[in-house]
Amino acid sequence: MRTYSIYLLLFFFSFVLASCGKQVVSSPDGSLRVAFRISDSGSPEYSVTRDEVSVIDWSALGLRCAEADLTSGFQLTGWAERDACDEWETVWGEERRILDRHNEMELRLRHQSGMKMNIIFRVFDDGFAFRYVFPDAASLTVLDEATEYRFLSDHPAWSIPWRTEYYEGLWTKAPLSEKQDTLCSPLTLEMTDGTYAFIHEAALTDYPAQNLYTQAGVLRTYLTPWLEEGRITEVKAYVPAPFATPWRFVILVRDLRALTASRIMLNLNEPCRIVDTSWIKPMKFIGIWWGMHMKSMTWEQGPIHGATTENMERYLRFAHDHHIEAVLAEGWNRGWEDWSSFSFTEPYDDWDMAYLSHLADSLGVQIIGHNETGGNAADYEAVLDEAYTYHQTHSIRAIKTGYVAPIIRTRDGLQWNKGQSGVRHYRKVIETAARYHIAIDNHEPVMPTGLQRTWPNLMSQEGVRGQEWNAWSQDGGSPSSHVTILPFTRVMAGPVDYTPGVFAFENPVMPGTRVHSTLTNQLGLFVCLYSPLQMACDLPENYMNHPDAFRFIENVPCDWERSLLVDGEIGAFCIFARQRRGGSDWYIGGVNADTPREVSIPLSMLEADKTYTATVYRDGEEADWQTNPYDYLIETRDVRATDTLRLRMASGGGLAVQLLPR
Ligand code: NOJ
Ligand code: CA
Questions:
Q1: Quick check: bond before 242 cis, omega within 30?
Q2: How far apart are CA 662 and CA 657, in angstroms?
Q3: 462 lines ligand 1 (CB under 6 A)
Q4: pLDDT tens readout for residues 251-290
Q5: 404 lines ligand 1 (CB under 6 A)
Q6: Which of 117, 249, 422, 615 could form a disulfide with 417 if both were Cys (CB 3.0 to 4.6 A apart)?
Q7: Residue-level pLDDT at 20
Q8: What is the C-alpha to C-alpha distance for residues 391 and 134, in angstroms, rounded to an integer?
Q9: What's the rounded Cα separation, in Å, for the pair 558 and 284?
């Protein structure tokens, strides 16, 4: 790992500041400028310009706490500036090396109550961030966060409402003023000048998740409240001293390529805390899973029980034969009959854990464990060590966790999973799992905020309306546009366990419901929706009906050297290109909404002096998600960096390309 840093530290004191009125910090390239001032009533405020044009007008900062109103009554006592330029290496990710280049300004404030509060701004070339720091105050009871974003136009925003269960909703676009509901963080803005903004938080470890709402044209913060006996209280957070809130950040970029390339969120998280990360491995997996959602199998023991020794043996051998690194099994453990007494150490009678774990070892395939808690986080926390010892003993190095319950039961009673207590629980799970060398794929999570930099065993999370909705959703399944929106919204917050790879589109369980996609679109998802634990969700027998197309899934990696958006439009289509980590082969994936389109893909990312064999998986002439999802063609041709691929994506269609240097 190559790291270099330059830190410059300058201190100025209040007598210097008095003459300036405001403090300004610019991005390293000088294009973005964040200004800070204390208003006449002592309220901290900030504003933002880009290339001298105002983007965010003077906006409020501060917290309202039970102990003091920390939104006014402040004096500036000093400030410090630093600049940083670090390059660090990811354990896994969309790219190996990440550059963290920013300028920082720390404002030191004293409140009339005597309390100290510092605000730290960081300005990058592609956005800015800030957080509140309480260096020595007594512990605080946070009632509200006053943070505002006073954008100067009524920008259209992509969002889901803040009470969307587990974030499993369809993202919609409307001008901020027309958004009636409070919204989940993140928000993606298609700015009225044709540029883009993305608003979210980073390093959420012991605080409630932020939500956002518009009031009189101003975007304001609403922290997820604590509940008492299931009812909303006025308290949002109990913070110990010293304390720093999560970072609030805004990406400001001119195009979607720069949006998806922004690494501000990861840069704002702490460096890796796990010393030996060699056991953390990106993997593709299949699983005993889709059968349950399609109702041809059950989680609980019975005549069509999915997780039997026999079935698992079949899946493990299939994975071995097709170079898939792991197999997930849901329903292996007792408790599925009533969802209230799950055991994480006792298998059903028809599951021989010792045998399967030996078989998996001998085949070189991993078993991915499954711990559904039914939302009972408190009971799960109480047996974490026992559960992880059991999994570790059976060579299980990754566990999918689940919290199906609108309100979860934490050690603080019934709470929202994205309230402070839920956030603490998830963090405890990640840190405990790390001690047992176990990676986590968290379903029904709190929205990711980049914690995987610090804890790279937090590999994937759901927090999305995933493929499972196409099995049983009463509304007929997600529209084809859904997966063209996610890379610019949910996936900007972190890896997503969407579970791509459906190869059979008939749905006997819910005939009106289906996957709104062609088979090629399902291949494209493996590149478009990033996850280092990437599931191929369909049944082995369905894959064997299309072994030639399945070859793309066998070959596509899930850990990358470099990634880039080739082209896209939110809600219409997207095309990504990614290079295998440590390799020179490239993979391109595209997904399309309902309108068929021709696309051009310049291959300029390839090495200039090399010829590559391109294997192109594309929609056939008759392909259409509604009438003919199975129509696909596979073609091979030689290409060079100067070539451009011209391909057509059908309605709900897609494309997938493997590029191997010759
Ligand atoms: C919801 C999860 O998202 C899904 O993947 C899982 O199969 C069920 N819960 C059961 O745990
Ligand atoms: Ca779910």
A1: yes
A2: 15
A3: yes
A4: 999 999 999 999 999 999 999 999 999 999 999 999 999 9
A5: yes
A6: 422
A7: 52
A8: 40
A9: 7
pLDDT at res. 165: 97
Element (H, E) at 143: strand 140-145
Task: Give the nearest ligand 1 atom to 402 CA.
Answer: 11
Strands, E, within 27-73: which ranges?
32-38, 44-50, 53-60, 63-65, 69-70
120 close to 23: Cβ distance less than 8 angstroms = no
Count Cα neighbours of 31 within 13 Å in the Cβ-side half-sphere. 9
Phi, psi of 209 (to 5 degrees): -65, 145
Tokens of 416: 């929202």
Residue 330 Cβ < 6 Å to ligand 1: yes
Pocket test for ligand 1, best of 468, 497, 498, 533 (most atoms within 8 A of CB): 468
Q: For ligand 1, atom 10, which residue shows the shortest CA distance? A: 372
Q: To test the ligand 1 pocket, which listed residue (332, 443, 464, 470) has its Cβ within 8 A of the most ligand atoms?
A: 443
The residue to which tokens 């294009």 are assigned: 31
Mean pLDDT of 337-360: 97
Domains of the chain by start residue, with CATH: 3-267 (2.70.98.10), 283-517+529-554 (3.20.20.70)
User: Is pLDDT at 487 greater than 60 in this prediction?
Assistant: yes
Residue 287 Cβ inside 6 Å of ligand 1? The answer reads no
How far apart, in whole angstroms, are the C-alpha atoms of residue 189 and residue 221? 16
Q: What span, in angstroms and rounded, lies between the C-alpha atoms of 43 and 71? A: 6
| Distance from the Cα of residue 193 to its chain's centroid | 27
Cβ–Cβ < 8 Å for 110, 12: no
DSSP secondary structure, 569-623, as one string: ETTTEEEEEEEETTSS-EEEEEEE-SS-EEEEEE-TTS-TT--EEEEEEEE-TT-
Check: pTM over 0.85? Answer yes or no.
yes
